[in-house]
Amino acid sequence: MAKIERSIVSYPQRGPWGDPTWEGNTSGHLIVDLIDTYDPKSVFDPMKGSDTTGDVCRGREIPYFGVDLKEGYDILSFHDQARIMREIRSRWPDGVDMIFFHPPYWGMVRYSNLATDFSGGPYSLYLERMHKALTFLSRLLSPTGFIALLLADFRYNGRTYFMTDDTTGVGSMLQMGLDKEARIIKVQHMTASRGKVAHPGEFAFVHEYVTILRKRGAFV
Questions:
Q1: C-alpha pair distances (Å), 18 with each of 9, 15, 42
Q2: What is the chain's mean pLDDT, rounded?
Q3: What is the enclosing helix (H) or strand (E) of 176?
Q4: pLDDT in tens, 47-59
Q5: Does 167 score more than 60 pLDDT?
């Protein structure tokens, strides 16, 4: 693999990491390239899904910790946040260097009927959940750590939902105590949403966006 040196990346193949039947998982090549670019010494995935991130880290011998709602970890629950915080601090007292955050995309795949599943509920609730999740995740970072947030846009019934922009607006960033360092466009090659458009003329998203977030003040 290689360091990311351009603002557009493309991975036609997802690679051998994770479970290829898990709908919505990303290419492990992206995680490999993020690691090569930023050289983290520890990695946390709060919504690990098929555990693509874990497979990459184990192959690279990078200390890793991952959780998921399907394993009983609700990152918006104070109880589970405390559990995660204790685990992170026991492994890395100064915090974790890289958090790969790839939440469900609103309006696309419904993963469960659990009330706390990000894939369910109205868009306003999705944005509220994202705000709370990122606020919590920022507390887990080491002083030089970063969050790699992977999201996409979604067009349906004539409207486009700009999930990345709506999640990382200026006001939200101020409230969450985060700053945006960079955004990388990831070309989409395999997406189930292509078959879910409503009428002729509709189109599905064709890109994803990796936004690199750091604690406010990290650039001072």
A1: 20, 9, 19
A2: 85
A3: helix 170-176
A4: 998 899 999 999 9
A5: yes
State the Cα angle at 159 between 155 and 157, rounded to 5°: 80
Q: Answer for the pair 61, 115: CB distance below 8 angstroms, yes or no.
A: no
User: Tokens at residue 6, please?
Assistant: 């351009």
Q: Please compute the mean of the pLDDT values over residues 178-206 and round it to a whole number.
A: 66
Per-residue pLDDT, averaged over 129-149, amounts to 95
Query: In angstroms, rounded to a whole number, what is the distance separating the alpha carbons of residues 213 and 46?
Result: 15
Q: Indicate the Cα dihedral angle 129, 130, 132, 133, nearest 10°.
A: 110
pLDDT for 88: 97
Q: What is the pLDDT of residue 50?
A: 83
Q: Which of 43, 140, 133 lies closest to 86 in space, CA to CA? A: 140
CA–CA separation, 55 and 99 (whole Å): 15
Q: Are 35 and 62 in contact (CB under 8 A)?
A: yes
Domains present along the chain, CATH in parentheses: 8-215 (3.40.50.150)
- Residue listed under structure tokens 């080491």: 142
Distance between CA atoms of residues 142 and 155, nearest Å? 36
